[in-house]
Amino acid sequence: QRAPGKVLLDAVCNHLNLVEGDYFGLEFPDHKKITVWLDLLKPIAKQIRRPKHVVVKFVVKFFPPDHTQLQEELTSCLCMTPISVDLYRYLFALQVKQDLAQGRLTCNDTSAALLISHIVQSEIGDFDEALDREHLAKTKYLPQQDVLEDKIVQFHHSHIGQTPAESDFQLLEVARRLEMYGVRLHPAKDREGTKINLAVANTGILVFQGFTKINAFNWAKVRKLSFKRKRFLIKLRPDVNSSYQDTLEFLMAGRDFCKSFWKICVEHHAFFRLFEEPKPKPKPVLFSRGSSFRFR
What we know:
Elements: H1 5-15, E1 24-29, E2 35-37, H2 44-47, E3 57-60, H3 70-78, H4 82-101, H5 109-124, H6 129-138, H7 149-157, H8 164-175, E4 186-189, E5 195-200, E6 204-209, E7 212-218, E8 222-228, E9 231-236, E10 247-251, H9 255-273, E11 292-294
Antiparallel strand pairs: 1-2, 1-3, 4-5, 5-6, 6-7, 8-9, 8-11, 9-10
Helix pairs in contact: 4-8, 5-7, 5-8
Main location: membrane
Pfam families: FERM_C, FERM_M, FERM_N
Subcellular location: Membrane
C-alpha cells in the first residue's frame, strides 16, 4: 500500500511476461466513482482508499497507431523476440474485443463482422458452419450481433489456415483504420453550450458530436493545455489561415473530470513523442503537480 503505483503495474507486467509495460495502465473507480488511471508516482494507499472494495483493471492506455511497427519499436530498445511482440498484439487484440463488446469501438456492419470473424478464427480455429453458428449463438461479441451472423460466417470462411497470432495481426489491421480505434470519449460542452465529446489520440485532441468526429487539433497546433476548475483550455499556436480563437474553452462536468482529461492529454503527448526521439529510448516522462503544460 505504501509503494508507488509503478510497483503494482510492474508486478502485473511481470506476471504476464511483459518486458515493456509502457503501453498499458491500471484504471479503477475513485471514491467519487470516476474511472481514473493509477498514478505511477504516488503511493497506492493515497489513491485507493478501500482496496478490498475496488477492482483495478489492466488495460491498454496508449494504442499504437501502427502495430506493424511494434517489432521495430520494442526490439530496438529491448532486444525482444518475435514471440514477445505476438504477446503484445494478443493483448491489444483483447482490448479491441472488449471495446467492441462495450460499444466503445463503433463502426459499420461490414467492419464489425470482419473484426468478429478474426476473433472467431483466433478462438475456435478454421471455418465449420455448424460450429460457427453454435459458437455465435453462445458468445456475444456485439450487442446486435444476430443481424451480422451471415456476414461473420462468410468472412470466417476466408480465414482458413490463419493462426491465432495471424488473426490478432489482421484484427488490428482492421481496427487501426477505424475512427473510434483507441478513443475514449469525455463528455463536455463548447462555449455555446453545445454537448460534445473530447478525446485524445496519438495525433492530438479530437472533438466529437456523438460518435462523429467534427474537429481535430494535432499536437503541432497546440501551444499549451491547461484547466481551471471545470474549464479545459487549449491554447493554439498563431495561424493566419485559421478562423479559430487563440484559446479554445470547453466545459466539463467538474474539476476532477477536467483534471483527469488534462492529465491523459499530457501523457499522450509525451508518450508518442518518445518514438520521435533518438534511441536509446528515454525514460518514461513523469509529471509533477500543476494545471498547465506548455509544449515545446
